[in-house]
Design goal:
It is found in: Cell membrane. Pfam families: BPD_transp_1. It comes from Belnapia rosea. Belongs to the binding-protein-dependent transport system permease family. The chain is mainly α. The chain has one domain: MetI-like fold. About 70% of the residues lie in helices and about 0% in strands. The chain is built from 16 helices and no strands. Helix 14 packs antiparallel against helix 15.
């Protein structure tokens, strides 16, 4: 062995520099990877939320910085019949629309879970209401609900002769409310159906085969196999559906703008009307902040749905 080779062989290993050691340190690497996402959340979520909560406790208007007024805006809302009307219709709108979306969505999911011809094409067609932009859907429904040119009134009056006059869908309170609910159900069915269909396909066919061997009926298989196994996904999808429906803005504002006579205002549309066209930013922010308890309730519903999943996996609930 030559002297040069011996020197090379005995040369001590060089230690990596501080930058290499820093990026090899797992806590720093995790922090560096999460920093961009945390920055985006801070700028586009935390700051607007914090600013909205701050404005709710001030008398800020457009063009004038406000002063701290404490709970004055919320005290005013408790005495405002229009706010109570928006709370009632928001809860009513969310409840009826969610029940309708889940009843029809579950039925479609069960139907598409069977072996049908052109099943992939049918799934793509069902997604169309969800893919179409909300404003375009709202304009289409606004045309369908038009008191003079409605296709529904044309069929019932001109073709079938079941009615003598056209239906005024949006001219009075309750017809307008139910018309908006029908439009929301039409838009929400694809999300529920495809999500539940994905859950149905995770259920093992061997469970149904064993139930058939025991002589179970279709209702018993749904009650004791399909529904319990689908419940965790059902809870999560229902939570998102409740949040999306309760905070709906585009559909309602594009079709009725809260009318007639403010009867179809949701909390989101009322907050916008008071805050932007009305100029009362503090009051509009207070209306928006009043939505938070309802959204927290929906989140807690999702948590208990996830706790059910622990039970299914043989783990103890926390």
């Amino acid at each position: 062995m030559s002297a040069t080779t011996a020197l090379a062989w005995n040369r001590p290993n060089q230690q990596p520099n501080w930058l290499v050691r820093l990026f090899d340190w797992k806590p720093f690497l995790a922090f560096a990877c999460l920093l961009p996402a945390a920055g985006l959340l801070l700028v586009f979520l935390t700051y607007p939320l914090g600013l909205g909560i701050w404005l709710a406790f001030t008398d800020t208007t457009i063009g004038r910085s406000g002063y701290w007024v404490g709970l004055e805006n919320f005290q005013y809302l408790l005495e405002d019949p229009l706010w109570w009307n928006a709370v009632f219709y928001s809860v009513f709108y969310t409840g009826i629309a969610t029940i309708g979306k889940f009843a029809l969505g579950l039925w479609l999911a069960l139907l598409l879970n069977n072996h049908l011809p052109f099943k992939s094409l049918l799934r793509a067609i069902i997604l169309l209401p969800w893919i179409v932009p909300t404003v375009l859907s709202a304009i289409a429904f606004w045309w369908i609900y038009d008191p003079q040119f409605s296709i529904i009134s044309f069929l019932l009056v001109e073709k079938l002769g079941l009615l003598n006059n056209n239906i005024d869908f949006l001219g009075s309170a309750w017809p307008a409310r139910f018309s908006l609910i029908a439009a929301n159900i039409w838009r929400g069915i694809p999300f529920v159906a495809i999500s539940l269909l994905a859950g149905l396909q995770t259920i093992s066919p061997s469970l149904y085969e064993a139930a058939l061997l025991d002589g179970s009926t279709a209702w018993q298989r749904f009650r004791f196999i399909t529904f319990p196994m689908l419940l965790p996904i059902l809870a999560i999808v229902m939570t998102f559906s409740i949040i999306f429906t309760f905070t709906d803005f585009q559909l309602v504002y594009a079709i009725t703008r809260g009318g007639p006579v403010n009867s179809t205002h949701l909390l989101a549309t009322l907050a916008f009307q008071r805050g932007i066209p009305g100029g009362q930013l503090g009051e509009g922010a207070a209306i928006a902040v009043s939505m938070i308890p309802f959204l927290v309730f929906a989140t807690l519903f999702s948590y208990f749905g996830l706790a059910r999943r622990k039970w299914q996996q043989g783990e103890g609930n926390d």
